[in-house]
Description:
It is a single chain. The protein is of the alpha+beta class. The chain is 30% helix and 26% strand. The protein has 16 helices and 35 strands. Strands 13, 14, 15, 20, 23, 24, 31, 34 and 35 form a nine-stranded mixed beta sheet that branches. Strand 32 and strand 33 (664-667) form a beta hairpin. The two termini are 27 Å apart. The relative contact order is 0.11.
Amino acid sequence: MTLAIGIDIGGTFTDFVLEAPSLDGPRRHTLKLATTPTQPERAVLDGVRLLLASAGARIGDVSRLVHGTTLATNALIERRGARTAFLTTAGFRDVLVTGNESRAAQYELFYRKPTPLVPRRWRLPVGGRIGAQGQELAPLDEAAVIAHAAEMRAGGIESIAVGYLHAYAAPAHERRTGEILADLLPDIPVSLSCEVSPEIREYERFCTTVANAYVRPVMAAYLARLQDGLRAQGLRVPVLLMLSSGGLATVATAMRFPVRLLESGPAGGAVFASRIARHLGIERALAFDMGGTTAKLCLLDDGEPRRDSVFEVDRSYRFAKGSGMPVRVPVIELVEIGAGGGSIARVDPTGRLRVGPESAGAEPGPACFGRGGTQPTVTDANLALGRLDPERFGGGRVHLDAAAAIAALCRVSDAAPMRTAGIMIEVVEAAMAAAARVHAAERGAGLEDRVLIAFGGGAPLHAIRLAALLGVRRVIVPPDAGVGSALGFLWATPSYQAVRGFPRRLEQVDSADIAGVLDALADQAMRIVRPALPAATPCVVRRAAQLRYRGQGQDVTVPLSDDAPDATDIADRFVAAYQALYGAPIPGVGIDVIALSVTVSAPPTPADLAVEPAVAHQPRQLRERAVWSADAPMPTRWGVFDRAQLGPGACVTAPVLVLEAGTTTAVPAGWTLHVDGSGMMIIDRDAPATVLTASAA
């Protein structure tokens, strides 16, 4: 047998999916277990054993295991990383504090900048200077590096970041510093900015390098324990890690550059939604992923998620760009907010009910989990309103206590618990809708003409109401939506992007110089991707350049041809891309090259989604259930269906709840549910659904 396993560690649950080949399409086994925050690998190892037992398989049959985790992100947000020092050019130790000119809240008197990961005591200056063109202006002060090494050992430093001015143009000083530290402190990992993020803009480059150093010991220790545990169980294939860019890499790469894993879980969800959109021929979609801790929204155009080279972690102002710590690595562009099943409700000093971003997580979890939690969460509210089945939550592995949920709701407000629960749901859904609108507006995108693809443990429960708030008229809930990100891991391919700063005036660039840099980047990326692939697998190489008009602050990424790069061709490509983005080029202004990049990846594999004939029929209802809403004095009767009984062609009229192992879909009145030949639940507003068919691709 050739089995594939995807594992996604979230803040509340760890999701598992196993795919086994069969004649009529892949058979899937799914599982959700509570995350074990202090030892995340424990839930993974237990889950793998349970998953294989449910499939009647052995771990030796596994040919592919892909993993994604929020561990690195949580370590940054919760400040649980390593004791880190930062060596930087003398005179620039405070760049991590001063940042750049952006300010998220222009008129906020008590504006708080992101707190640096490294206190000033351990931001250590080193003499020496490299110019913007890569010329050495002053030699490296090696004596200072040696003295700082003694300080760091005495101070119990666990990880070191090195970021010198203009190291992207000439990395010699950083590399020499790395050699000295490796000799004097061989047991302490060193992250060099010329390896982690070799691009211009020192604030972003320094923040990224420090973030990598801060989480590196935590991630390295976790991944080593996980890999050893899986090998002890009998796993014989390499463990692959999901990157923020949507590609896969080996454990060795993840240990060295853990900063590239910060958005690995959400990236898996974006890959999942992307394959669903392409399968159904959807040109414009909105991916909606809601778990126990956060909700994620991602725009998809022509079946592809938007991508960026920088994102922010730990924003101090909700949705406010510029209020977080910038990280410059390839990433799928999305918005993430603290709105999940475990989000805690509270009354603020003004008397308003707020929900999140604080979360009950997996320990103690929502009050209804019976693990010691007492504060009301979104899951407690949904249970009290009748929108969850207490006996089938988490595939029946978690029994929900409705009395505990109601008791928690009574602690936060004097209002009737159903009223409080309904308002909590409205608050969290309004927050998600606001985040989606801001995210779309910042990118000049509309939402009304998009199809919402919902997945994750909580998204199908809230997707229809969110769609109504956004003006979206169609929602799709794919099969196994509750473990969508883990399934997306299995649909991803090994991929890595290598980048190098290359600040030049385009008219002065020699084609041979560009070709040389691109070839070196291709070799670097190939060395990282090749170990994650079978020996005979061909690779796809994509080359690109970041360019801008002279004097501008933002750049545009332009794909380059496979032939020898020519300055005229590069200029024509930039002008065309700039015009497509902004409406018109700027004649008479020179063009600057900022950076070059090469992405090496395995060829994409089509999602194996079987299509069966869809014959319209009315499925059998399990029972009816009383469901409350915030503005109704009495509950209404909703039909309850088992998703396993909704075959292709099934048509259901709302209001209904559809139960499955990993999630629950709530469809209020005014919507119609139809199941297509791929098992997708297609939910349309105020009109019968039209059947979507898989595209030829």
